[in-house]
Input
Amino acid sequence: MSKNHPRLPGRHELGQNHLVDKRVPTRIAELLREETPGPILEYGAGDGALTSALLTTGRDLTAIEIDPRRVRDLRRRFGSRAEVVHADLLTYRPATVGHHIVSNVPFHLTTPLLRKLLDADDWSSAILLLQWEVARKRAGVGGATMLTALWWPWYEFHLAGRVAATAFRPVPAVDGGVLIMRRRAAPLVAVAERAAYQRLVRSVFTGRGTGLRGILTRLAPPPSINRWLRAEGLTGGELPRRLTAEHWVSLYHEFESTPATGAPARRRPNRNPRSPRAKAHD
Output
């Protein structure tokens, strides 16, 4: 960074690990160019390493930063080229829809920010720099977490690369990873059925039993479970984290939870395109 824009010292209490490797912001800007048109919302702009690269995309940019010192510095540096907002990224409510989220996420805010984004319906994609292992798990590499499985029918998760710890200052104890989340154009489960689907996922992840077959005995008789396992090419010994998005959706359609009691209920998917249930899954 030039003498005109000295790097402000990091504030440990804000969980700031700033990017010093210029190749990383450049790569993230390249990834953003591949997304559909739309404005950018950057969460946790920090010292502006990402902000500067994002401006090269030519899109409208709003940068959110909680540290007032950095807000003043960002406004001096970028002027009218970016709107810099002094706000908490967890409570800020954007005025736009169809925007793209970009963030070098403060590691201690990873889970609350992910929950906020997944609950929102106003953004198209999110490119997030997270801890390496978190990024891998959210993308389902080596096994997905319950949080990913809960939202898979409505979002796609992709791992877009690893970032060495030495790319940050202060240097964290772990490497980073770039996670891309995209809202599915066609949900795999109707939004109206989200509560029922997520109830099923939670019951499987927290259920007792040896392997998937043992856990699923709470949902249906063994013959039905065995038929589903064979149809999906599963042995029954897998753990829930080994299931893919397609497995979860198939499981939901096969053993749907009833909204009234939360108890599992066996049903066959209705194939009649004119029926209300079939229409809800379009």
The chain is about 35% helix and 20% strand.
